[in-house]
Amino acid sequence: MGIYSEKSIPRWAGVIILIAAFIAIYQPWLLGDRELFRLEGLYAVSATEFDPSMPMVTAHGVAIQNVFPFFPAMASVFQKVLGMPMEFSLRFLSVLMMAATAVIVYFAAASERSYRAGLVAAAMYIGTFLALEKGIEGYPTTTNAFFLLSAQLLFFQFGIRQTNWNAAWIVGSALLAMGFFTGGFLIILYFVFPMFFFRRPLSVKSKFRKPGFPVGVALLAAAVLVWGAPFWLMSHRVPFQYLGWADSTLWDYISEVLLFPVMLPVRLLPWALIAWMPFCVALQALDTTPIFSRYLRTLTFATLALLWLLPQGEPREIFYLLGPLSILVGINYELGIRRYGIKVRKLLVFCEYFTVGLALAVGGICFAPERWLSWFISLNNTLDFRLAPEFRLTALVAVAVLLSLTVFLHYSRKTQPVWLILLTTTAAAGIFYGIVMHPYRAQEEVKREFGTSIRRALDGQPGGTLYKSNILDLYGELFYSGAKVVKLQSLEELPEDQETVYLISTEFPQYPDRSWSNLLPPDYSYRNHRLSLWKGVKRERKAQPAPLI
Predict the structure, then answer these.
(1) What is the per-residue pLDDT across 377-401, written as a single tens digit (0 to 9) for each?
(2) Which secondary structure element, helix H or strand E, spans residue 447, and what is its range?
(3) 212-216 long-range contacts, Cβ below 8 Å, gap at least 24?
(4) By Cβ atoms counted within 10 A, which residue in 12, 243, 336, 538 is the most buried?
(5) pLDDT, mean over the chain
């Protein structure tokens, strides 16, 4: 097997390439175009209702046990203080934490091996198809990953490397407490679980007697109490309900377990082509930093086991694995390329085919007649956005850029660094997403139209609160109504001191103390559910006759 030597890119050039690729992949100017989707509506409502004096997160006036305050608080700051739209605030926060974690990954790998190791690690973290798909969604997962990885790396730095275990426990627990305020108990689990598999010289069993350990435990306990005490005071219940998985059937769980080994490499593409290198036994024998590599491998395997075996896992939770894995790939990159570079470069031809396929797809989707496209793909939305002259010009530029990247990959596949080829491939996918997928998805206005219907129905009505009963959560939809919404457990909770109330429901309110009239059309429906917006006016109670004496 031949030894392959790869040329280096200067540090300044590598940083510029990372920044350019990050912009091409995430395209921040597009983050606010698409309406809130899936749980983004829940986080939007939570951010709108966030109260700095109360660590408990609410949505439509109801405490939400599986949403933690840090992410809604930051989104609330972006919207209320900086004036950003809520859609942009949620997604910008996710992208910002992707960038922050990439910086940590860079310095962790660069300080351990070389600046090239840092470039490779950061490129892998921002350059997987997982990051392209999930990194731009307004979810707290990338923030969770930031605090988790920070706690793991500083725990190693202070404890194992500097043998200052007091600082390791305290600093690690403090960051873990911040992670708890973002991701809850699962973040603690992802931090603690790998410790059961640490072996010498990584073993921490004897370090529990250090004074810093009870201090760290106290920090975590304080964070849990600050979050959980309001739940207990309000309901006298411990807020651990979200830890159960009652909605998942056994078959669903088995399907998830069987599909995970298939989906993980796909989501790590194109970096799955080299992600296996740090686990090659032949390379481990040549590793000049074996302790740090062993630590990262333990984190990787333990996190992988949790991702694989915990029920109802989300694909975006792979970010918890991606941080340690990216650093591990970065610090073992040079050894791996020297040993397997020739074989890996033969596989890079698929990156070339992929990029030229993207160029052809952009040209076909943007310029072919819609009736032709309907023969090959299922279209739920119209393609009328293609008719705009400025879009056609942008599409032509995108095709030219993708073809240029294809030429670059073809002639540079044997001369340029492997990590640059892989990062270029993901950047090309980001261009395809921005030109084709984003405008196609951004025209979905179902939730905005629903919110507009509610707002129009309330127009001219006296101010007040919109109550909801017997309906789906409709967080995103009602967010666009602009109304203050309160969820009712029963109609008995309607305020008696308000002359007029507004109630959105799927059925006629069985509450005879008010006279009800529907403000929406009688046949109005949303997602195959009939909905009505009821105006309830308090009935005048007839005076009771005085009793005869």
Answers:
(1) 666 666 667 777 777 888 888 889 9
(2) helix 446-458
(3) 212/165, 212/166, 212/167, 212/168, 212/169, 212/170, 213/165, 213/169, 215/166, 215/169, 215/170, 215/173, 216/169, 216/170, 216/172, 216/173, 216/174
(4) 336
(5) 86
